[in-house]
## 1
Amino acid sequence: MAARLMASLAPIFLFGLVFLLMPRVRAGILFGRSVPVEFAKSPGGQAIVGRYQTQVLAVILAVMLICGAALLNGLYVLSVAIAIAEFPLLMWAWIAAWRRTEPFAVKVPLRRSASLAPRALWDGFSLSQLLALLPLAIAALYLQLHWLQIPVRFATHWDASGLPNAWTARSLAGVFGPLIVGALIISGVAALSLITGHIRPDQARQMRPILAVVTWMMAALVTAVALHPLSKNPDGGPGFVWWIILPGMVGLVVSISYALHMPQRDGAYPWDGTPDSGWRWGLLYYNPQDASVIVRNRFGLGWALNFGHPYAKLWLGSTLLFTAIVLFVVLASVHAQP
């Protein structure tokens, strides 16, 4: 029960940790606004950051306590609702800090610096993302070789008490569906890493360690779930999931910390060359006059779409199509049986 409780609360803590760390990813940008490079270390900047961090920590603690109490009392629907409520509360803290930073914002030259480092489309981290497909392939081969040992009907979903409440039949979609979904997601992450390496090499260097952890965590989960029907108790709850999630969360925290402390290669110019007027809350970018489809994110790592560019709709549509394909495979492979 303790491991299940910790695993249920870990995503809440990790999600809050992202909000806690993201405001100070790089100098010259604070809460999505262009500020003097030294402002974050000034008394005024420290006051804004300190107040924001206090609010975020209060939200994390309150949500974890209430959600944990709900889980211990069997109020699972309430615990899910409380966990979902964490996001708007953290957004409220971010927007409040974004507004408090406005008086200190400065206008900076709208120029962009180019990385002088050689473009490395692939590196060790990006190759490890593709290697994460190997456990899935081995699991698929093992399932094929032991096809007759798979139960004709096996559990695919369990309630909070560990009792099965959904089943699927032994079929190609039911048995190999989780592996197909996992392969699609891992391939999508690898493609994202490749595209980012071509367009924003320095951002790719930061994101690839995190993406590598995500892909291997996904590979471990999907492989374990796919092989569960061959276990001694296929209708029993997959308790092994928690022992994959917890180390995975630790790996994510370590990789995020590593990425945040990674030295940049974009030169001394700290700003991103986009006007503050194009950013909404420092999160969404809309500037029809900017020829760039993607720009450097002002919230955390990675990049953001310029929703004012016509090609942004193509990017968004491709993402929605990919999501629809994954959902279709999930629905085809997992279905309840009377």
## 2
Amino acid sequence: MVEIQRQVAHSEVNADFKAKYASIITYMQDCSFVHLLGQDGMMHELDKRGMGMFLTCRQCNLYKIPVFEQDIVVRTWVYSLNRFIGYRNTVVYDKASMEVLAASYAGGAFVDLASGLPAHIPDEAIKDVLIEKKFDGMEYLPRKVAIPDLDGDVKDPFTIYRSHIDSYGHTNNAQYIRMVTDCLDEEVYPKIMRAEYKIPAKSGDKIYPTVYKKQADKTTVVLRNGKGDVCLSCELTM
């Protein structure tokens, strides 16, 4: 397990001094990457083979919104890992009370960076990664996010800029969530968010969003590229 402690900063909140939803995802992402970099044997093997680990899905359950200047603790750990994929929990706590504010599970796949195709690494490379107990404070929903079979509300397209790009050269996963929430008519804090990441979007790509409202409390946002390929499908349960 890796733990980071931080205070909710002014640049991370909205006009009501609540942490933006994408900021909460960023806390999780940053803690997860610190943990990933600490896996020396696995990272050495990935570097040697020209490979990386790409996020494929995330479910986030939000219980209480962090606020400006609140001290928080973020913890992450791996609960399942094989030569092809791995799964981790990441949990955000209030530092003073250790109340759970948000909890997540996320899946990642090993990928050949040159081809962008799934790949695998030897068992030897992952033998030292500590596998810990799966977080039992949330219901685990399917990682696949279905696109509703109905007419959606097509939104204005937008462009992926350099500021959206991460160290892998494609759109950062928290940036995708920011794009999703920006497609909606008002700011939202979904109780449950499920995201399925598919085709990576790169700088200069045009993104075409569609919003599907299947039920009163469920909204699905799909981001497609100029070829019509799905980059992200994201279900928000309010």
## 3
Amino acid sequence: MAIPHRVKVLNTCRVSPPPGSVAETSLPLTFFDVIWLQSPSVQQIFFYQLTESDTTSHFLNSLKLSLSLALRLFFPLAGTLSPSPKTGELEIRYKDGDSVQLTIAESDSDFEFLTDDRAKEMALLKQLVPDLPNSDSDLLSVQVTVFPNSGFSIGVSIRHVAADGTSTMQFVKHWASICRFGVGSSSAESVPVYDRAVVPDPNGLNRTFLEQQQKGDKKVGSVGRARADTVAATFVLGRARIERLRQRVAMARPHVNGEKLPDYSPFSVACAHVWVCLVRARAESGSKTAQFKFDSGCRGLFDPPIPAAYFGNCIRPCFVRVGRADLAGENGIWVGCEAIWGVIQGVKNGGDDDFLEETDGLIERLMEMGGAGGRLDWLSWSPKIGVYGVDFGMGRPTKVEVISMEGVGAMSLMEGRDGDGFEVGLALPRLEMESFASMFEEGLE
């Protein structure tokens, strides 16, 4: 007999910053924001265990109050994406009384099963994260789901046009700090910087990207609804495993006399292994090219640097292309690693001038994902951001899931929950996931 997995909504309310605490404010979109104008929302789930001493009702009240106080500082998330009354250009606008939707729910699902690494139906996880009530204008929605006598989860949906991963976690960590320590605690994150003037746009990229978006006929990263048999699973790459993969890269690399092996980063090694396994698991024959995309942070790329506390988007898409047959072949781990590492080094050495010049067709390339131009595998989260330090007063998360990868051919790469290496999150059709899992382990032998 199948085990039920019901989520019952207990209450839905709106949470706003304290009345009168924030002046009406409008934030124009920078070209970094416009890149993600049509991108799906970023959705995360933080799972926490309950202890015998925890009082659920008291904790839920604390979460709600601290969310209101956190929005006082991160007020744009309570605002809306709407046309400017003066220019007609899209902007993020906040006025007193604007709010976010908070849903309180209860689930009878097996908490331990949901928080382990085994493959599980994506539909089970999707129940734990809210959709944006108005997907065109709302920017943030939150759902707290209680698993009686086991734990709870906090699901967060943030529109990508409002914040990248760094800014998203800046908000979540600030909210958690207030919930745990109260307002004004020394553990609170730095005050966000909203000044759009710190983002230079000498080449008019904002207008260029808007025009490229208007030429597209589908949303960035959208490939329609995910298949009903889609499952999510987590794969762990500890330091020892990454070192083993690095050795495999060295063995697969063509030998050149006197040439030293590049100091490939753990990130490039891990991404290459996952990319190779994905391509082999799919066994696609239509396209000759394998494509991979990851995002690179740009706050320190400009001169002068954009403040680390800048709130919004400040990442650039980086594209990697190799021959599919080469990547799926015997030396695929080196092919993928060398290509990813080369793009990373190019970003480091190129600086802001290269990015400002290399814009032709950027939006079109993002819109290729899942299209006829060949499947593009998308890394949707970076381990540099850090998610396992988010403590609302109940300890560290038992598990964190990034589930916005559903339906867009994406993966997530987060820091290991025990501080060892990386966690790889994937959403694939079940048979494809089984094939990937087998190849993932074989590649580590």
## 4
Amino acid sequence: MRRLAAIDIGTNTILMLVADIGEDGILFPLKDLERTTRLGRGLAETGHLHPDSLSKSYEVIDGYLTVCRDVGVDKVIMAGTSALREAENTKDLLNLVQERHGLTIQILSGEEEARLSYLTVDREMGGDSPLLVLDIGGGSTEIIIGDRGRISVLRSLDLGAVRLTERFLGSDPVVEEEFQQMMAHIFRDLRSLAITPPKRVVGLGGTISTLSILRTLSNRFCSTRERPRSIDSRSRAFPETEPM
């Protein structure tokens, strides 16, 4: 049994999975870590990774590699996605990791990222009917359709959550006009695919997880319109405290 670590350097977060792998290929996870670094912050506007985000991302990677040494990992695999594909100064991070740790970060193409997303889902949820895998990241969204391991549609679109937020959503809370402009842009890109989605859809990524949580908690949180009333009510009930 080998102990491996996979580090996924994304536009918004850096993930690490440490797992033992049996001879039959079955994974036995030991650690599943996630840190938000916003590596792609401001990338669309400047074309460069922000120095603060670069520094924070390296600190996270360095910490992950310390964990790998502590638990006796045999091999570390590191891969970068949308932000590292596009930035003009990607080598700043790659060279730093290579010089200090002797490790190489592999930059995945959008198509390879999409293919790996599909294979991950197909391995766990294959089934006998067509499947659409939707992987929403910080910089890009991968859309893959396959049937029993055979891929028929493989696309990577520049529709990541961070990218769209920085381009369209300048207000907090979001105003209707900004939201509609963003949705029009998304639908225009999706229509260009000219595909008929199958009935089975599996979502990956932090955005999908957040939507799932919000759906679960739909009766336990207030909207932005309700929040001022909630704060006002709390102030009257607890006059000695200050509203947040």
